[in-house]
Specification:
40% of the residues lie in helices and 20% in strands. By secondary structure, it is an alpha/beta fold. The chain folds into three domains: 40 residues, no CATH class; 278 residues, 3-Layer(aba) Sandwich (Rossmann fold); 253 residues, 3-Layer(aba) Sandwich (Rossmann fold), CATH 3.40.50.2000. The protein has a nine-stranded mixed β-sheet. It has a six-stranded parallel β-sheet with strand order 20-19-18-21-22-23, sandwiched between helices. A two-stranded antiparallel ribbon has the order 1-2. The chain is globular and about 70 Å long. It binds pyridoxal-5'-phosphate (PLP). Pyridoxal-5'-phosphate binds next to helix 2, helix 16 and helix 17.
């Protein structure tokens, strides 16, 4: 058996490894004393995220934010960055979606058993919530990169016998419950997380706050005797993912103070809980030196919302190996060895013949079509242009936009056939999102016999991988400026699927019209009314589909393959978490 040194990545035989360490319930092997010492005592970046999506079997994510966090962990492990991640165990997951034939979403708990996937650590820490002690334990997932490199991930859990029944449930549901429940989760994550890292023996150089849920960690750091605001700031990095004011939650003062009183001293409470309440975002801004948005456009919106702060842009990415389908992995391995570790090499994709690209994509498309046939009774055709759309069913994502004119859709389809594949869960409390899913099911019924459309149940990371790779065109129609970055289109690009998207988030940077894909609607700098925007979006959607996309797909197959290749060469080489983590490392962590 060959294993790896988690610090330098060197392959080793366990029997002959010169150094070992037995910690956190595992045995680790090292090629040198320096590696072992670094592993045991070296400082790490602590990456805090309310949701983390590493694999479908650990359902502690709801969408792009969590999947990004998982990709951060994977790229950090590949790049041998010293990181440890912290999240909540969410024993009942986010939500398991069941759909009735009419598209009614039934919300089920997505229960999973941490003991089947993770190692329980013996350490216990306590946080005080209201006037009660809440004991917290941690479950450990060692994420190993295939090329060596290890990122430990701690899943915090309050489901312990010694806790009051209501506190045992604090780490049950991702984004579940009322405001009070959410604030309690933030206390466990931010304050409990810092304590747990210390208890387990991790030495932390920087704290990366991935969205503001964990920002109470700043106040926990501030309580340490030798700390002051400036010192806390130099240790904290804040990545905001939200582009609009209304999305920044404020916890009312009369609710926050009683919950936090036992943990946060009155001077800090007065300074950081405003009269109108506690904003975890403002707290993160105030106490982080490095603050960034997730695309240049998002940085600009954030700058308008938070004038006076220096905000930077680090555009999101996706983990190359995770989001590349098997057919493309083999193809890249053959022509571009080393691509998964150095995705910049994908600029050389022009060396791969069109025929091979088409063939790999056709395989990925068949995998999608077989999947659809297995989980629904719909048989799709691998010779027909396939358009995919999948993401959280949130109103701003506008999943129903393409159905605005059903007659037009029928007419386009008569001239050149296409089929549509949808998926996405609504948050259990999001009535608008649920209504959209029902609406799409109604459109599916109305288009029956004319245009084939399916809606796949219970969207997950596995399904995202199959859909983004198997679609010919990846559709995205968010309402600007709500899509701070978006990442599913980057997954599509890695697999030669072509983006057809509204100019928002990362697509503003990735888009070269007709070269890397196509835009829907006006550019980001045009000031136009909502009605005018919608009119132009629909015009682009339908006319580009009819006069550009469909004819190119069916009649100019070489041109189509060239765009697929550009999608890889000009998007995938850059929009990945390897590039992103190298930037965080050089600009924020060092
Ligand atoms: C990548 C991914 C997302 C993000 O998709 P966007 O289109 O960027 O919102 C959401 N959910 C899952 C399961 C994903 O894999």
């Amino acid at each position: 058996m060959v294993i790896r040194d988690p610090v330098c990545g060197m392959p080793l035989e366990p029997e002959s490894a010169p150094y070992t360490a037995e910690v956190r319930g595992g045995i680790y092997y090292f090629s040198s004393k320096l590696c072992r010492d670094t592993f045991l005592e070296g400082a790490r970046i602590a990456y805090f995220s309310m949701e983390i999506g590493i694999e479908s079997g650990i359902p502690t994510y709801s969408g792009g934010l969590g999947v990004l966090a998982g990709d951060v962990i994977k790229s950090s492990a590949d790049l041998l960055l010293p990181m440890v991640a912290v999240t909540l165990v969410n024993r009942r997951g986010y939500v398991r979606q069941q759909l009735t034939p009419a598209g009614e979403q039934i919300d089920l708990p997505d229960e999973w058993n941490p003991a089947e996937h993770l190692r329980e650590l013996p350490e216990r820490v306590t946080v005080r919530i209201e006037e009660r002690d809440v004991a917290v334990r941690a479950w450990l997932h060692d994420y190993w990169s295939p090329v060596g490199g290890l990122v430990p991930v701690l899943f915090l859990d309050t489901d312990l016998e010694e806790n009051a029944p209501e506190d045992r449930g604090i780490t049950d549901y991702l984004y579940g419950g009322d405001q009070e429940y959410k604030l309690k989760q933030s206390i466990v994550l931010g304050i409990g997380g810092v304590r747990m890292l210390e208890a387990v023996g991790f030495r932390i150089s920087k704290y990366h706050i991935n969205e503001s849920h964990s920002s109470l960690l700043t106040l926990e750091l501030l309580k340490h005797r030798d700390m002051d605001e400036e010192k806390v700031r130099t240790r904290c990095i804040f990545t905001t993912h939200t582009p609009v004011q209304v999305a920044f939650e404020t916890f009312p003062r009369e609710m926050s103070v009683p919950l936090l009183r036992s943990e946060i001293p009155p001077v800090l409470m007065d300074r950081y809980v405003e009269t109108d309440g506690l904003s975890l975002t403002t707290l993160a801004f105030d106490l982080s030196k490095f603050v960034n948005g997730v695309s240049p456009a998002h940085k600009n919106y954030s700058q308008q919302l938070f004038p006076g702060f220096h905000i930077r842009a680090v555009t999101n990415g996706v983990h190359p190996h995770t989001w590349t389908s098997r057919p493309f992995r083999s193809l890249f391995d053959q022509y571009i060895p080393g691509w998964a570790h150095e995705p910049e090499l994908l600029v050389r994709v022009d060396e791969i013949p069109h025929e091979d690209i088409r063939h790999a994509h056709q395989r990925a498309k068949q995998i999608l079509i077989e999947y659809i046939s297995r989980v629904t009774n719909v048989e799709m055709d691998d010779g027909v242009l396939t358009i995919g759309f999948a993401r959280r069913a949130a109103a701003y994502k506008r999943a129903t936009l393409i159905f605005s004119d059903l007659d037009k859709i029928r007419e386009i389809n008569r001239r050149g056939a296409f089929q549509l594949v949808f998926a996405g869960k609504a948050h259990p409390a999001d009535q608008v999102g649920k209504q959209e899913i029902r609406q799409i099911h109604e459109y599916i019924r109305q288009l029956d016999g004319d245009v084939k459309v399916v809606y796949l149940e219970n969207y997950s990371m596995d399904m995202a991988a199959i859909m983004t790779a198997g679609s010919d065109v990846w559709l995205n129609t968010p309402l600007p400026p709500y899509e701070a970055s978006g990442t599913s289109g980057m997954k599509a690009a890695l697999n030669g699927a072509i983006n057809f998207s509204v100019l928002d988030g990362w697509w503003i940077e990735g888009w070269i019209e007709g070269t890397t894909g196509w835009a829907i609607g006006p550019g980001p700098d045009e000031q136009i009314s909502d009605d005018e925007r919608r009119r132009r979006e629909l015009q682009d959607l339908y006319s580009k589909l009819q006069y550009l996309i469909i004819p190119t797909y069916y009649h100019k197959t070489d041109e189509w393959a060239t765009i697929m290749r550009s999608s890889i060469a000009k998007i995938a080489y850059y929009f990945n978490t390897h590039r992103m983590m190298r930037r965080y490392a050089s600009e924020a962590y060092l």
